[in-house]
Amino acid sequence: MFDLTVVLDQVEKPHNLSAILRSCDAVGVLEAHVISKEERLPTFNSTAQGSQKWVALNKHKKINTTLRRLKEKGFQVYGTTLEKDARDYRECNFCEPTAFVLGAEKWGLTKEAIELVDETIFIPMRGMVQSLNVSVAAATLLFEALRQRQDAGLVPKNGEGIDEETYRECLFQWSYPQVAEWCKINDRPYPELNENGEIIEDLPRDVKLRY
After folding, report:
1. Residue 126 confidence (pLDDT)
2. Domains of the chain: which residue ranges?
3. Spatial distance between the Cα atoms of 73 and 67, rounded to a whole number of angstroms
4. 3-state secondary structure (DSSP) of residue 8
5. CATH assignment of 4-151, given 3.40.50.11440, 3.40.50.300, 3.40.1280.10, 3.30.450.40?
6. pTM of the full predicted structure?
7. Planar angle of CA 13, 18, 23, nearest 5 degrees
8. What local confidence, expressed as pLDDT, does residue 194 receive?
């Protein structure tokens, strides 16, 4: 789903980034966004289970430009916070294009991010701690959005909502990941597939062994 995403504001711990991307993959989110310091590149660990291969993580330097672009694309932007005027996430409608903004592990959302989101939300807690780990919070919100969309019959089954070129690229990458990597290394387009999902082009023998 290209109309559901997360924006991670200064979330840098590999374990959390990995777990969040794994949750994105689990609900069918195709891309996520991270705002991080220029010298710190996102890293992953085994928790991701390879999900970073399937969920594009777009890196940005500024939260304001990132959220502005999402809003221009029609996304409603929700920020997680413990502020008193935040709304219970279960009361919100996530069937429209939605972006969840989650803050750093220790400090939460920055003041700038809070001022930029369309609405602030919170996940109610019944125990003694105030909030969930950022990766658990992301999973909670993503699966609530998926549940709402399933109930409304809005979950895509055949690439609905994705332009044809992107759909073909994703289909090839998921069907032939090793050949897709070979194409990337050799800076060449993906081969065409027939109606049965088979590669039409007569590729070199060593590449065919990667099927």
Report:
1. 87
2. 4-151, 164-208
3. 10
4. strand
5. 3.40.1280.10
6. 0.79
7. 130
8. 87
